[in-house]
TrEMBL record, chains A, B:
It holds the Pfam family Glyoxalase. This is VOC family protein. InterPro entries: Glyas_Bleomycin-R_OHBP_Dase, Glyas_Fos-R_dOase_dom, VOC_core. It comes from Arthrobacter cavernae. Residues 4-129 form the VOC domain.
Length: 143, 143
């Protein structure tokens, strides 16, 4: 099995609020938008984020797992400076996110970061990580 | 805010079982492995999957959210045929995954797929999706 992720899909209680936050609030461009079912956004080369109606998410798993909400996962977006961490968090809050952790030095990894929660409970970390970069071939390098 | 995801991080109850599954079982190559803290795997161009000790995951969020486990999220890996869906699910099960949904036609999107759960409860979908492709520039195309 190749070391490759193609989709990340979240059980979404309110697709309308997801559309309002990502499309209207952040200005993101949906790859596909199926009202009442799912909204897809491309978020990396070859990678799609899917916001999937929570009832259908459960159906798709044969209802073996009843989703009470999203937990235990964080999505991270890196920016170029500490100041940009703060301004990005402000922008997310203005678009309807709840601030969980204001911009500050992180406990791990020598980063400066903060966390917000989107209208459906998905946690995003906004971080400036001086020890991280992406090479021109897409390879991530630490340190 | 660019439409870009850089890290996806999961609260992980047992890092040793995560290492055993992804590194030893699937043969994936860690980008970085900090025992007792986090294991990183690159899973797309510019994108890293982090398996983060659950206690530290909570600390990093200022303990505002107590993680009881991962829920409401699925990671998907696409393969080239229905037969490869079945064989990949068998390989994941042999490496220690639990099968949630055996390989079958999906209810949504015209795909053939199945779901497994890794040793820490992270759900993976293995899918063959004839209506999906990645262009050479990394852009995902549906239909």
């Amino acid at each position: 099995m190749d070391q490759q992720l193609h989709f990340i899909t979240f059980a979404t209680q309110d697709l309308g609020r997801a559309r309002g936050f990502y499309k209207d609030g952040l200005g993101w461009d949906p790859l596909m938008d199926v009202p009442g079912e799912i909204i897809f956004f491309q978020v990396a080369p070859g990678l799609v984020l899917g916001l999937f109606d929570a009832v259908k998410f459960d159906q798709d798993l044969n209802n073996q797992e009843k989703t009470l909400g999203v937990s235990g996962v964080t999505l991270s977006h890196n920016v170029g400076s500490a100041a940009e961490v703060s301004s990005t968090i402000e922008r997310l809050a203005a678009a309807g996110a709840t601030i969980l952790k204001p911009a500050q030095a992180g406990a791990f990894g020598g980063i400066f970061h903060g966390h917000v929660k989107d209208p459906n409970g998905i946690i995003w970390e906004i971080a400036h990580n001086p020890g991280w970069r992406i090479n021109s071939d897409g390879k991530v390098v630490f340190g």
